[in-house]
What we know:
With 99 residues, this protein is an alpha+beta fold. It has a domain at 51-90. It contains three helices and three strands; from the N terminus they run H-H-E-E-E-H. The chain has a three-stranded antiparallel sheet. The longest helix is centred in the middle third of the chain and has 19 residues, at 30-48. It is extended, with a radius of gyration of 22 Å.
Amino acid sequence: MFADGPPSTRGAQARTHDPRVVDSAGTPTAEALRATRIAARTVRELYDSGREVRFARVSTQERVAVLLCDVDGGLLAALTPSKALEIATGQPCPQAPPR
Length: 99
């Protein structure tokens, strides 16, 4: 009935091979934690200023576009990948054009 024995005989082996259990990759490095804090601060600052960075797949060119949008999704500017990385690391974001 059970291919690998009844549940009571599987013991620890069943737990180590359970696909629902994910092994931890360990603790993030100090640098990874620092980068995450900077990115989180940047997202908050953008949101507080009414802006956000969005990513859109451009299927005709098989690439991803990086867009600076207002919080309603209106496009403010297209960003180069390098500018998006600069923003993610805490460098100044382009200002929204006047409405």
